Protein 1
Amino acid sequence: MKAVFGLAAAVTLTFLVLPVLAIFLQVSPATLLHELGDPVARDALVVSVRTTLIAQALIVVFGTPTAYLLATRRFRGRNVVLTFVELPLVLPPAVAGIGLLAAFGRMGLLPAGVAFTQTAVVLAVTFVAAPFYVRTAIASFEGVDPQLVAAARTLGAGPWRVFGRVALPLAAGGLGAGLALSFARGLGEFGATIMFAGSLQRVTETLPLAIYAEFARSFDVALAIGALLVAFSFILLLVVKWLRFGWTSPFRFVPSTSA
Amino acid sequence: MAALRLDLTVPLRAFDLRVALDVGAETVAIVGPSGAGKSTLLRAIAGLVSARGVVEVGGRDWSRLPAERRPVGFVFQDYALFPHLTVRKNVEFGGRADGLLERLGIADLADARPRELSGGERQRVALARALARAPEVLLLDEPLAALDPHTRDAVRSELRATLRELGLPAILVTHDFVDAAALADRVGVLVDGSLVQVGTAEELIAAPVSPFVARFAGGNVLHGHARREGELTAVELADRTIVLSADLAQGDVAAIVYPWDVTLARALPSDSAQNHLQAEVHSIVPVGNRVRVAVGPVTAEVTAESASRLSLREGDLVVASWKATATRLVAR
C-alpha cells in the first residue's frame, strides 16, 4: 500500500511541478531577464499593473463594506445574495466575457461603450477577482467573536468605531489573504479580458494576453513573461499563507474552477 | 433611592424572562441553572438584546438608548478582551485609564497582550476596562467561571473588596451559590426566567421558598409525608425513615437539612439531636479545611479534624445526626 500511494504522490507532484520548472529550464535566467526588456513584455507589464491595481482598489473599497454587511446581517434571501457573489468563481471565463459585453458593450444593457478599452480590462479583472476577496472577507468578518463586538458596544463604541477599531483590525489578516488571492486571480485573468477588452498592445494587452500573443512570435518572450507571473504567484501564495497565521480565525479558501 | 430599577420582559425561546428588581448601592447576585436567562438579563440591561419594560438608572430611563449610550461596566464571562490591543489600549477603549491600572495592580502589564495574561490578570483587565467607562451600573457575567480553583479564591476576595469600594449598583450572574453568597449583599434565584426568591444568602438558607432554592443553597432535600407528632412534625421518607422537624407542616413536604448542621459519629451519640440516621459512607470529598461526607441520603460537612478523628473510609457504617430545629420543611 505504501509503495502504491507513494508512487501516486510522486506522479502527482512531478506533474504539478514540471510545467512550472520547465519555464525556468528552457532558457537561461539571463535570457529570461533580457527578454523581459522586450517592448511587448514591458507594455504588458504596465497595462497589467495599472489595471490590476485599479481593480483591486475598487474591490477593496466596494467589497469590504459589502462583506461586512453580508457577514453581520441576517436577512431573507441572504443565501441567494451569497450565491450570486460566488457565481463568478465557478463561471467559465468565456461566459464572464460575453456577459460583460452584453452588459457594458456597445449594444449592452448599459451602453457605456467601454468594450475594448482599458476600462474594460479593469471591469473584467474586477468581475472575476472580486468574489475571491469578498468571500474571504465575509468569512473573516464572521470569524470576529460577537462577544468582542458586544464588549465594544458596552464600552461606548458606535457602529463606526466597532467597525474601525474591532472588526476591521481583527479581520485584517483574512482580508489581506483574500486580497492576495484576488490579486493573483486578477493578474492571471485571460478569458473574460480577451473577449471584452481585446488584446491591443499598450491598451488592453495584459501579461497573460501577451504570453498568448507572443508564444508564436517569440517563445522566449512568452517564457520570460511566464516566469514573471510564476514569481508573482509564488510571492502572493506566501503572503496568503503568512496572513493565515494572524490572530483572525481561520478563513475558508474558496477554490475556483475557472482560470 | 434605588439606583437601578428594573421591570422588564425579554421573550426567550421556551419562556419569557420577566424580572422586577430594585438595586441600590449594593451587589445583587443572580443565581440559577444554565438556560434560566441570567446572561440575557445582563444583556438586556446593557441594551445588547431588546427588552420591553423599564430600565431606569438614577431616575433616568435607559430603555430607548442603544447599547453604546448606556454607561454600564460589563465584565463578560470569558472577559472578551480585545486580542489585538495591549492591556492599556484595552482599558482606554472604555475611557480614561488614569490610575485604574495601578488601582487594579496591572500597571506592569500595560504593554502586554491579553493572550500573555493569566486568568486572574485577564479578570482584572476586564474590570479595569469596564470601570474606565465611568459606569453607573456594573454587570458581571460569571466573573469567576473562567478561573481555575487555585486562583479563584484570591480573585473572589479581590473582587469583593473592589465591589464594596465602588459602591455602585452591581448585578453579578453566577451558577455558584458560594460565589454569590461571598460577593453579593443579596441573592436572587432565577428559574425559567422568573426570580423565585430574592434575599440575603442567610435568608435564602434559613427560609427557602422551594426545594429548588434549598438545593441551590447547598441543602440536602429529602422528600416525604409530614404529620404532627407532639410538639414536632414527623416526615416519613420513601424508605420509611422518619425525620423530625420543629417546623409545622402537613402532607407532602421537602425536608431541608444543611450539611453543616449534620454531625457524624461511629455509634449512636447521646446528645440533644433528635435525628439519627445510620448508613454507609458513599463518598468523602475534602473542600478546603472541611470534608463533605455523603451518608445514605444526606451529605454532611464536617471539619477535617473531626473527619480524621473518626478515620472515615468509604463503606463505613456511621450515624449522621441533626437537631429537629435544623430540619426546615418546605411544601412541594
Protein 2
Amino acid sequence: MRFGIVVFPGSNCDEDAHHAARQVFGQDAEYIWHKDTELKGADVVILPGGFAHGDYLRTGAMARFSPIMSAVRSFADRGGPVLGICNGFQILLEAGLLPGAMLRNTGLKYRCEHVHVRVEQTGTPFTCAARAGQVLRIPIGHGEGNYFASPETLQALEANRQVILRYTDAQGRVDEASNPNGSVNSIASICNEARNVVGMMPHPERACEALLGGIDGRVIFESIIESFSRSAESLALQGAGARRAGLSGDRM
Amino acid sequence: MIDSQVLERHGLKSDEYVRIVRFLGREPNLTELGIFSVMWSEHCSYKSSRVHLKTLPTRGPQVLQGPGENAGAVDIGEGLAAVFKIESHNHPSFIEPYQGAATGVGGIIRDIFTMGARPIALLNSLRFGSLDAPPTRRLLEGVVAGIAGYGNSIGIPTVGGEIAFEPSYAGNPLVNVFCLGIAKASDIIKGVASGAGNAVYYVGAKTGRDGIHGATMASAEFDEKSAEKRPAVQVGDPFMEKLLLEACLEVMQTDALVGIQDMGAAGLTCSTTEMGSRGGAGVEIDVSLVPQRETGMTPYEIMLSESQERMLLVVKRGREAEVERIFDKWDLHAVHIGDVTTDGMLRVKDRGSVVAEIPNRALTDEAPLYQRPMSEPEYLREVQQLDLDALGSPERLARHGPPERLGQHKPSTPVARAFQASGHNAALFALLSSPTIASKKWVYRQYDHMVRTNTINYPGFGAGVVRIKGTNRALAMSVDGNGRYCHLDPRRGAMLAVAEAARNVACAGARPLGATNCLNFGNPERPAIMWQFAKAVEGIGEACRALDVPITGGNVSLYNETDGKAVYPTPVIGVVGLLEHADRVISRRFKDAGDAIVLLGDDRGELGGSEYLKVVHDLVRGLPPFLDLDRERALQQLLVALADERLIRSAHDCSDGGLAVTLAECCFDTNGMGAEIAVGAVRVAADASVNVAAALFGESASRVIVSVSPDDVTTVLERASAARVPAQVIGQTGGNLLRIAVDGDTRIDVTVDEAERRWATAIEQYFAKRVA
C-alpha cells in the first residue's frame, strides 16, 4: 500500500514516518509537498509531527491553509484514512477535521519521554490490530499537547467512543500522575465521527524498532496495513461480483 | 574623525590602528574601521590563542577535514563522513539566556549543514553558578528553554551533554553547543569563493540592526553595565533556519555551488572575507542589494549586523536560475548581491559607489598575532596543598568541629555535621543530590532527544549514540570538561577532559575517532590566564596525540570574566566515536541480576579536586587525579573490543563522585536492581576513615565499572590482563540494595529506590521550591 506523508515547511517527523512505512514495514511511501494539490494516489495520509510554519501564531494555525489541505479534506470526506501525529493532530484540530483544541502543557514545558497509553477503541484503521485495553509504551514530544474540548463536545466524544488512546500508568490505570500534559479525560488520541480521521499526540513512528527502545508503536502501522488489505480484499470481492453487499464499509 | 574614543568603542588598540593604516596606506573610513574591528576581534581572529592552537594534533588517516573550515570531519566508513564542531555562546547567554542559547544552537547547526552534512545530533555542555542562587535558576531555565526551543523546532535531537554547577560561573555561565552531521565523504562542501565572475548570493532572513558588534562584545569582559548590551544579542528563528537547512541541502545536491558559509559572528563581513581569503580571490558586493528589515541602515550597520539565519553562497556563473528556483520552493529569497573578483580585495559598494576596500589578507592572515605574556598564577601552589590528615573523618568533624590545621577553610558543612548518624550513606546521598551529579532529566526531558528516530543511547545513559540509517553503524559522542580540575592544574585537567570524553565514547562501545574543543577562559591580557590557557592547550595536545583523537576544529572563548573575576579555566572536549554494529551499543545500566561487576583500572585513593571534597568538606584543593595516557588508551581499546564481542553488558566511567556514585548510577533506571560490592582501600592518610572515603568517593582516572555475565568473567579478566589493564571482580548485581564494603566493613548500605529518588528529584526540587 502507499503511504502519503505530507511535508509542511517546518515538518520534522516526516522522514521518520517515511522510514517506518518504507524501511520497517516495507510499504510504498511518498512525500507530498504542502503546495501540491493532489495526494499522489496515497492509500493513507499521514500529517507528521514537527513545527509546521514554525508553529507561529498557534500550532497548526497556518498549516491548515496550505494548498494540500483541501485534497486531504476531500480524501477524508470520501472515507480515506488520515492520521495526524503530534503537530499533525494539532493541524487536524485547526482544520476542523477533528473537534477540540490544544493548550500549552500544564507544566508549561516541552516534554519528551516515553508514556503509557491505553487503547480505548479498536474500530479505526489505526488501532484495528490492537486489543481493547492494551497498554502501549510510546514516546511523546510536545509543548502543546493539553487536549481541551467543551463539556458538550467531550460528552459527545465519549458517547460516540471517539477517544482512541488515553494516558495511563503502566498497568493501564488512568491517574493524574500519568497524564503528561493535563489533557481532559487523559485524552491522547481521538477520531472523527466517521472514525477514519485520527489524531494522536504520541509518536508511534518512534517506537517501531527494538534498537530505539521499544516496538509498541508498530501496532499502529500494522493496523493501517491490516485495514488496507481488508478493504482491498473486500473491494476485490465486490469486483468479483460478491453477493454480500456492504462489505466494503466494514471496519473502515 | 577616528580618535581614541572611537577606537576604544571598537575594541581596537592604538598599535592595531597603526597596523591598519599601514596596510591601507591611508586612514580607514568608519565602515572600514568597523570591518577591521570585528575581523581583528579575539572572537574572529584568535589573535591571542592562535600561536598555542597551532601545536594541537590535527591530522590522522581518519581526518577528512581539520581546523580552518566551518567544521571538522572524520571518516566513518561506507563512504560517509561525520561532520562536527563545538562552539560557545557564553556572553550572549548571560545577557539574554533564552535567545543567547537558542542562537548558539542555530549557529552551530549552520556550521554543520554549511559543510554539506545533514545535522543529526546535538549535545551541550553548560556551566552555571550554584543552583542555590535564584539568578542561576533563572539562567538555567532560560538557557535550557532556548536550546529546547531551537533544537526541538528545527527537529535535531539533543542526545546528551553535561552540566556542572560551581560558584565561579555565577557571573559568567558557559553555554557550549555541539552539533554533528552526516555527509557523503566525497560531497563535503567548503566555504570558498573562487572563479572570477561567479555570483555571490545572499539567502535567508533579512538584515537588521541586531547583534552589531556581537563579536566585539564576546571579546570583552563583563561589568555591571553588561545588561545594557542587550541589543548586541540576536534573536533566533528556528523555522527560518529549518527552511534554510532544507533548501541549502537541496541546492548542494546540484553541482551549481562553489562554496557556502553562514553569516555568524561578524555577519556579512566575516563570510565575504573568509570565503574570499580561502579561495584566494576577492569578493565585491553592493550592500544596497542586501535585504533589510529596517530602513535607513548604513553600510557600516549592514556589514556588521549579526542577524541570524543568513547564508552567503557562491554560485557558478550560468547556474543562478537553478539555485533561485530551489530557494523559491522554500519561500526563501536568494539575492545576487555581488561577484567573485580576482584582485583579492573585499570591496563594498553602496548603490555603486565604493564605501570600503580592504585586502582580504589584511583582515585574515595578517590579523594581529600575540605572544601574550604568561606567568603561573599565584593561587596555584596554595590550592594544590591538600593535607588529608587534617581533613578529619566526617564523624570526627561532627563531634569536635574543624581541626585547627584547616586554618581559614570552612570544613564543616551541614552535610558533614549530619554524618554522625549515618556515616558514608549520608555522604553518598549528598553527592547524589549535588546538582552536578544528580540526574539531569528535568533538563533533557525538555529536549526532543528522539526525533529523526536514530537515538539508541538516551541522554543520561552515558555518551549519546545515534545509529546511521542505511548502515549497521552508529556514532557515539560525548562532551566533557572539569573546570575544578583545570583550576587546580590546567594541564592535567585538560588531559583528563580529553580522556573522559574519549572514555565515555569507548564505554558505549565506540572507537574514538576525533575531537573538537571549546576553550573557555578569562581575559588573556592577564598573564595568569594566558598561562592557564597555554597549559591547557598543551594538555589537550598531549592527550589527543596519545589517544589518537585529533582535533578537527573548535572554538576559543576568552574574556569570560565579570568584574575582574574569571571563570575556572574550562576546556570542554567533544569526542566522536564509531560503532561498527549499532546493536552492540552499551549503556551505563546494569542488565540482569547475578552478573559479575568488574572494576577496570586502579584506585589510587585520590581525593584532590573531587566532588566529595567540595560537597562534604567545602574544599576545592589538591591535585586532580593522576593520568597515565598509555594505560588510558589500553583501557579504551579494551572496552571497544569487549563491547564488540558482546562480553560486557554495561559500562560506566568512574568520575564525579567516585566508585560509590558510579555504582549507584549503574543501578539507576533498572527498576531498582542493586549490587553487593567489596573493595579495598588505598592508604593515603593516617586516618583510616579518610582512606575509606577515598576508596568510596575518590576520583582516580582511567577506571570503568562493567557488568559481565558470569559465563564471561574469565574471558574478560584474561582480555584485560592481556591488555595490561588492571581488572578485578568487585561484586555482583542483584537484590534491591546497594551495599559496599571497604576492607571488610560495610560502609554503604542503602536501598536503590531511596538513592535513586534523591538523585532523580534533586534538580527539579530547586524549581518546585520556587513555585511554592
